[in-house]
Amino acid sequence: MTQTAPTKPFLRALAGETILPPPFWLMRQAGRYLPEYRATRAQAGSFLDLCYNPELAVEVTLQPLRRYGFDAAILFSDILVVPDGLGQDVAFREGEGPVLTPIRSARDLDGLDISGLHQRLDPVYRTVKGLSSAIPSSTALIGFSGAPWTVATYMIEGGGSKDFQEAKRLMWGQPEVFARLMDLLVEATGQYLIRQIDAGAEAIQIFDTWAGALPEPEFRRWVIEPARKLVERIRAERPGIPVIGFPRGAGMLYQAYVKETKVSGVSLDSSVPLDWAAETLQPHCTVQGNLDPILLVTGGEALDGGIDRVLKSLSKGPFIFNLGHGIIPPTPPENVARLAERVKSFKG
């Protein structure tokens, strides 16, 4: 079957085209910095209730598109719906973040089951389907998941962590249990992403937020290898759907990640040197990023200078403008408008 060439700017960039001005979207573009999001969030009840309410999840996904005209919409959901779908207890507490019943042993792992995954996540698929008909015709729809390593850290730690002590202890101390958990997550994540594509997602982003916490041998085994398997599965089962990887904090290992996973695009955190990315990564795939989100909070000339540096360094090849991580709540909406205007007016 012949693949038709994409027409949406975001998808054209992911196919390897150099576009001026470059397409742009921002991680966490739907979120607490927008007053309309806060109002919808209050209407939903809990954060997970919002993720599982297709009507409201579609609404919060569309809110930043109405304001800023981004080239891509990303499904509003959370990476922890997968553990929730596997049967782990997941809750989000105000001021505390995610709280999960931790997986620390083979017995804990025995309590997880993939058989109910799609029934539990059906509202997410309905959100994707609703978005595919609600977004503007030139806007691309991104589906996403957490990467197995990052999701595993929350499942094992029982929430967020600074040092990932429990996750690493399980990885090194009970390697067979950890490998079983990772295999389960690779399979569940693969199925989840294929279902999103079937519901209308036109591209996929895999968020490995805590990739940089692993030493090189473990990075290769638990970051690169699962991502490679997911990319291969999507390419085999749904050809033509591009995949963006985000191994945040990977440093020099970004290069191995790009070459070995064969992602269509790679999202760069703010620490990645721009000239190095242009020279080392951009010849192999589209690059996405990597403005520091705090510059978006700061605004003014500092923001303008940061935007211009990224644009001038990366716009000579296939490139999507984004942040080095997600928008944070204190961000003034007018600064996002300033960014949108500056990127859209860039001529190279």
Strand share of the residues? 5-15%
Provide a count of the helices: 16
Structural class category: alpha/beta
Envelope shape: globular
Largest sheet: 7 strands, parallel
Low-confidence stretches: none
- What is the ordering of alpha helices and beta strands? HHHHEHEEHHEHHHEHEHEHEHHEH
**How many β-strands, per DSSP?**
9
Strand order of the largest sheet: 1-4-5-6-7-8-9
Terminal CA distance reads: 36 Å
Mean pLDDT: 97
| Rg from alpha-carbon coordinates | 19 Å
Characterization of this structure:
The protein is of the alpha/beta class and 348 residues long. Helices cover 52% and strands 12% of the residues. The protein has helices at residues 9-14, 35-44, 47-51, 54-68, 81-85, 106-110, 117-134, 148-157, 165-173, 175-199, 216-237, 253-261, 274-281, 293-298, 300-314, 333-344; strands at 72-74, 90-93, 97-100, 140-146, 203-208, 243-247, 265-267, 286-291, 319-323. The strands form 2 sheets. Strands 1-4-5-6-7-8-9 form a 7-stranded parallel sheet. Helix 10 runs parallel beside helix 11, helix 11 runs parallel beside helix 12 (253-261) and helix 13 (274-281) packs parallel to helix 15 (300-314). The model has no long low-confidence stretch (mean pLDDT 97).
Short account of what is shown:
With 348 residues, the protein is α/β, with parallel strands linked by helices.
Short key terms for the protein model shown above:
348 residues; 16 helices; alpha/beta; 52% helix; two-stranded antiparallel ribbon; seven-stranded parallel β-sheet
